[in-house]
Amino acid sequence: MHESSAASLAPTLAQLAALALDPNITRAAERTGTSQPTLSRALRAWEDDLGFAIVARRGRSIELTEEGRILAAAAAESVERMDRALQRIRGTRTANSSPSGSCVRSARPWPAS
Hints:
With 113 residues, the protein is mostly helical. It contains five helices and two strands. It has a domain of 76 residues: Arc Repressor Mutant, subunit A (Orthogonal Bundle), CATH 1.10.10. A two-stranded antiparallel ribbon has the order 1-2. A hairpin with a 2-residue loop joins strand 1 and strand 2. Helix 2 crosses helix 3, helix 2 crosses helix 5 and helix 3 packs across helix 4. The longest helix has 31 residues.
């Protein structure tokens, strides 16, 4: 089995989340602004990198594997959390009328050892 970090999946989160909503490669590709062949190649590359199948291919249709469902659910949750964070940031920036928001500095963010 291959070792892969969550960071290596970062660009794929929206695509995995789209597959969680609708396990149809063409519609998932459309939903994320990419083409079906590009998403299909990306799926195969991710599977090679991870060392396990994300989808089971059945002719022209696919079905998420158990591993794929776990990853897709986590991806959907991550995308949703990022959307909420961006909404919060945008709301704060609008309220502050500051292009960069605000920053709070601490001399020591953790207890001394």
